[in-house]
Every structure is written in structure tokens, then in C-alpha cells.
Design brief:
By secondary structure, the protein is mainly alpha-helical. It has helices spanning 18-25, 29-37, 56-70, 75-86, 92-130, 139-142; strands at residues 16-17, 45-46, 52-54.
Length: 161
């Protein structure tokens, strides 16, 4: 493997090519390049031939990104957290507040889903008792008294900064 151009002690650092990082993390090569372009991942060292070489810090960063995504954080939020951390600030208070807000949003979404489920169950019970219904397409649907605001399809609101 060619030595990286960056001024680093190549003897004490384990360097991984982009394909190796992709295999170890399960993150695609194009996604890794995107993370680098968008500032989520620090620019890697390069060989004389231009190949990207990642150190173990990159693996730690990618693990953090995956965990934060699993918790519902957006890439913009994750980038902000990484930036704050690299600047020596602890973003933990912000993380707790974001998760607290997401839980409140999920609680509301679940309440909406429960109301929608109850309404569907009641409608089906009425239809089962009624049997067939004449109509232009299907009298059951045409005669249904449902809230057409479809709470089941409204996405969670993400906080933007």
C-alpha cells in the first residue's frame, strides 16, 4: 500500500482503503464519499495514487452516524453534533432534548394511529353487520363515515436549525 500524503506517522496508524471501510461498516462506497463531501466524515489521507485511506477514527465516526440515525437523527443534526464535539463542546444536552421531542411526537402519532385503528374497527364491525351495500363502486366505502384526514400518513416533524 502506498504511504499517505498527509503528514502522519504511518507506522502507528492502521490505514484502510474505502472498500475495506465499506465492508467493515456495511456503508456503501458512494455513501462514504457523500459523508466526506458533506462534512460528516473528515477528509481521509490519500496515497500518492489518490486512493483514500481511512484511520480507526473514521470507523468510530461511522459507527456514531449509524447509531444516531437509528435514534432518528437527521444527517444535518448528526453533522451538527459531530462539529460541536470536534470543537470541544458536549452536545449531550441537545441530544436529550431532540430525543425528548421525538418521543412526544411519537406519542402523538401513536395516539392518532390508535384513534384511526378504533375508527376502522368500528367501521368494519358496521360493515360486517350490514353485509353488501349498493353503490356506484362499493356502497360500503361510499357510505362510510370516516375522518378523511388520514393521520396514518402524516410524517413525523423533524426539527430544523
Amino acid at each position: 500500500m502506498n504511504q499517505p500524503k498527509r503528514n502522519v506517522d504511518a507506522q502507528q496508524t492502521t490505514w484502510l482503503k474505502i472498500g475495506d471501510v465499506a465492508k467493515r461498516t456495511g456503508i456503501g462506497i458512494e455513501t462514504l464519499r457523500f459523508y466526506e463531501r458533506s462534512g460528516l466524515l473528515s477528509r481521509p489521507a490519500r496515497t500518492e495514487g489518490g486512493y483514500r485511506l481511512y484511520d480507526t477514527e473514521a470507523l468510530d465516526t461511522l459507527d456514531f452516524i449509524k447509531r444516531a440515525q437509528a435514534l432518528g437523527f437527521t444527517l444535518d443534526e448528526i453533522k451538527r453534533l459531530i462539529t460541536e464535539s470536534r470543537a470541544g463542546q458536549s452536545p449531550c444536552a441537545e441530544v436529550r432534548e431532540v430525543v425528548r421531542q421525538r418521543l412526544a411526537e411519537l406519542d402523538e402519532k401513536m395516539a392518532q394511529m390508535q384513534r384511526y385503528r378504533d375508527e376502522l374497527a368500528e367501521t368494519l364491525q358496521t360493515w360486517d353487520a350490514r353485509g353488501q351495500a349498493e353503490g356506484h363502486f362499493c356502497g360500503l366505502i361510499e357510505g362510510a363515515h370516516l375522518n378523511t384526514d388520514k393521520p396514518a400518513s402524516t410524517p413525523l416533524k423533524r426539527r430544523r436549525k
